[in-house]
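Aggregate trends can hide what the representation actually does to any particular protein. For completeness, the protein is quoted in full, as a sequence line and a line of structure tokens.
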Amino acid sequence: MLVDSARYFIPDSTLSRIREEAPYLSRCSDNKTAVNIRPREYAIRYPYMQINRSNMVSWLIFDLDHNNPWIWQDKDLPSPNIVVTNRENGHSHLFYAIPPVCTSENARSKPIRYMKAVYEAMASKLGADPSYSGPVAKTPGHPWWITSELHNTVFELGELADYLDLEIKPLWSKGPDYEGNSHSRHCLLFEDLRFYAYSIVTREKREGSFFSFVRLLEAKAFEFNNFKNRGFEQNLTVAQVKATVKSVSRWTWDRYTGSSRCNRGVMKLDKSLSVAERQKLSALRTHERRIQATKQKILSAYRYLSRNSIPITFTALSERSGVTRQTISKYKDFIESLSKNEANKTSEGVSVTHNRDSVKYGTHQITALCNVYLFSSELTGLISIVSVHKNKKPPD
């Protein structure tokens, strides 16, 4: 089955953002392995493709293993940009567009930690697979799936957070669990290393860097790797130790805060408000933000058509702005107000074309040039009078 790839080149559409934000060379395939690597213009033709880049997240994608793709409505969450549903079993992927968040090793940890907290909270409410991490997903628009494009709003993370109650479980609140992990060298090293990481990460963020943090953890990990002395047959290999260091360092650097609470959201809503009240206020803000974005698109399209003397119709506005004609019709009053403003600007313009019908108003019109001339004449006369009186001799 062939995909209608032309839909990916419609300006300002959700599918165009999928194409633009995908890696230039994307993984893709006819199955979830996505072993092929193709330019993104070709990858969109496959039912599975890599959506996010390896070091950048532009889409929060939720893998629903149940057959209720509209669960976000039941949970009072904002509508996703795209819903991609399997025709056979009803399982879906929900796509939420967000401003790109860099996830490379040189990236700031707070945005990454915040994004993960938002994702985990939303995944819990949506009943999504918590182990799904992408980057391969069902390709939106492919004929294998049922694709619903709902809107093209890009959600700020704080905007999504206002719908949620972000709680982070303080996994560092207790000491190492030696009893529960006494059978495993990997688990014992993980327990020892993570608590050492908690003790130095704040200092390294303030005075060092992520790379110095990793070096310290690596040195400590090899020190902890003394399992022969603990009754095991042998120590862990170098590769196994480094793998544990990599896991602990990235997680701790990104997520350890010393607190069990995360940022409350972009609206900074009162914590005393119930979740339902916060969701209602957030929904109103999202709706208003979407209206303003649509108006801005219509305004830009209107000005373009007017500037190029193109007849302003709903169809022309729709084609230029990328907003559907049905949505354009809902903004009829706004468009009429734009027309009135343009008419007022024209009537108040400096250059006016006179004809016989406008002559009768001539007696009431004095141009700015006439005013300057009259004022200059009066000023000249006043100067002459003053000069005469100044030169006139006083009487004897």
